[in-house]
Write a structure and sequence with these properties.
Helix content is about 70%, strand content about 0%. The longest helix has about 60 residues. It contains three helices and no strands. Helix 1 runs antiparallel to helix 2 and helix 1 packs antiparallel against helix 3. With about 150 residues, the chain is mostly helical. It is rod-shaped.
Length: about 150
């Protein structure tokens, strides 16, 4: 018995009888049926692997953006600390002792740096390393397979 294929090279769907109690392919051998089940299962696994790859790639991109924000925040805090803190501290030194002025400015910029780092950390926490869509479809496949018993 030769297998029919579509234009894409995939096996053509067998003709479905109108009576659901009748076998789909009454003339197929056990080997042909097992081969088809094996092929279908292999295709299902390949599809799930591709879906997982796509989901993980998307999550890695989101993680990279969060890490970039944390790095950008750190660089911005460092530059701001160097440039503005001296100007502000020397300006405050006109009103209070220079040591206290520099301490006040240092505490101010430490707060800014902490805020940026916390915002970046929250972005990184939002990243989900588990491929949720793949996980859901695999669970659906398992439920379907159990119902077929």
């Amino acid at each position: 018995m030769s297998a029919q294929t579509t234009d894409l090279g995939t096996p053509a769907a067998p003709h479905r009888p109108t009576d659901p109690t009748q076998p789909l392919e009454p003339n197929a051998t056990m080997g042909e049926l097992l081969g088809r089940v094996t092929d279908d299962f292999s295709q299902l696994v390949r599809t799930h692997v591709e879906l997982a790859k796509a989901e993980i790639k998307e999550e890695v991109g989101r993680a990279g953006k969060g890490a970039g924000m944390v790095t950008g925040g750190a660089v911005a805090a460092f530059v701001a600390l160097l440039m503005l803190s001296f100007a502000l501290a020397w300006g405050l030194a006109e009103a209070i002792d220079a040591g206290w002025a520099f301490l006040l400015v240092g505490v101010l910029w430490a707060g800014v740096a902490a805020g940026l780092a916390l915002a970046g950390r929250d972005r990184l926490k939002a990243v989900q390393p588990v491929a949720e869509i793949t996980k859901q479809t695999v669970q659906e496949d398992v439920r379907w397979a159990k119902e077929q018993r």
